[in-house]
Amino acid sequence: MKILDRYILMQFLKNFLGTLSILILIFIFQTIWTYIDELAGRGLELWVIGKFLLLFIPQLIPIILPLAVVVSSIMTFGAFAEYYEFAAMKASGISLMRIMRPLIILMVILSGITFFLVNNVIPVAYREAYTLRRNIAKVKPAMAIPEGIFSNIGDDISIKVNNKHGENDEFLEKVIIHKKTPDKVNRVVINAEKGELRSGNNNDFLQLILEDGTYYEDIKARNYAQQERFPFAKVHFKKYIINLDLSHLNNVDFNEKSDITTYKMMNVGQLNYAIDSLKTDFKQNLTDQGNSMFRRTGILNLSRTAENEKSENKEKLDVKSINDLTNLLDDYKKIQVWDVAISNNKSQFDNLEFRQSEVEYRYKLMNLHIIILNDKFALTVACFVLFFVAAPLGALIRKGGIGLPLVVAMFLFLSYHFIGMFIKNIAENNTISPVLAPWISTLAMLPLGFYLTSRVATDKPIFQFERISRLFNKLKKKK
């Protein structure tokens, strides 16, 4: 390795490792602040808290690594330009790409390390952190129910709440519960406007008191005919109490492993398999829901009745509309028919609303798997692209240190980060293709990298204000 290459690498690595260490320290404190409610006042040993923080460090890589590349690149090339080292290199006949060559090789290696981390290390760390958080939450059961996502309470109940409040987060709003029947199939869905968690004298049980809600259950039938007669049961309630068995939460083992797997805990191979399964299940679910809705309309029974009447050669009635059909009935039977029709229609509408939310959830879950899969590759390329944006930008601003370069680096990184977050959030509902969404922020930086690199390579400023002024002067003359 030549002396120049070694010098450039040492300057960059010094800035990169220093920046990386500072960012890890900053984000560890941010993690402590975020999860202080789960850690403080719980009687946890220091090794448990240390393990918790250590497991969250790999999850910070998607934020820390690109930011460290941007900051260190601007600082390194800014210092070269500030102390005329960059000018001396170019005066010696060394081109910009030759100066950047050792760092380009380093970026290729760093991209490979990044892919290994996001594909192998982060999923394992996320699983371990998720399990540890569940075990910590068992010390205070209300913490086991986070806001906005489904969480398991025991083996049979999955619960989601939109909002929690109160001194101990005991008051819940917009509660959705999926409950398994004795055959271990999710047939029961409970919706409630609000709920409350109460601890009794017996610490092994927790009362969940629900108010103003609906209890819905798919009836398990012995045969198809019975399924047609009683497809489901639905009850509206003002108050409903569920006793949650917490005996399994005693004697918490913080080293206990969990078999729960989410999309953030998967590598590329697992995500590909899960996406194929989700697509198959999604199509089958739509088919099953359509068939179920069709059976509940009663059209099959009507068609069978019509066939029976035709086979018995009964007299055909001239019925061309609903009014013609209801005119055949007495007045009191008309009222009964309309009441039944309105009740059935409301029941079908409520069921359709519930099924629609379930379809939207399945669709979003499938998109999240696709986004996470493509994000692993996009992050690998992002470090490489951001280097080609930040390095020439540092040479242009001609300032080293942590002053102006840090400000420019933060502006550049936040633009990249928030564009990515915004696009991925709207891609969850398929507004934008979930395959393309993780790449958009990187692709947006790619033209900027080409432009800045070409300007620095040819010793030209970013903006040619002389051309703009000449254009204005020509317009003035013509006017």
Question: Key terms for this structure?
Answer:
479 residues, alpha+beta, six-stranded antiparallel sheet, 14 helices, 6 strands, 13% strand, elongated
Protein described:
The protein is of the alpha+beta class. Helices cover 62% and strands 13% of the residues. The chain has 14 helices and six strands. It has a six-stranded antiparallel β-sheet with strand order 1-2-3-4-5-6, with no helix packed on it. The protein is elongated.
C-alpha end-to-end distance = 61 Å
**What is the residue-mean pLDDT, rounded to a whole number?**
77
Fraction of residues in helices? 55-70%
Low-pLDDT segments: 249-254, 302-307
What is the tally of helical segments? 14
Order of helices and strands: HHHHHHEEEEEHEHHHHHHH
Question: What value does the Rg take, in angstroms?
Answer: 32 Å
Structural classification: alpha+beta
Q: Which overall shape is indicated by the principal axes computed on the Cα atoms?
A: elongated
Main pleated sheet: 6 strands, antiparallel
Strand order of the largest sheet: 1-2-3-4-5-6
Taken as a percent bin, the fraction of beta residues is: 5-15%
The tally of strands reads 6
Write a short abstract of this structure.
The protein is an alpha+beta fold and 479 residues long. It has helices at residues 3-34, 36-39, 46-56, 61-82, 85-91, 96-137, 224-229, 268-296, 299-311, 322-326, 331-397, 404-427, 437-457, 465-478, and strands at 151-153, 157-165, 171-180, 186-199, 205-218, 232-245.
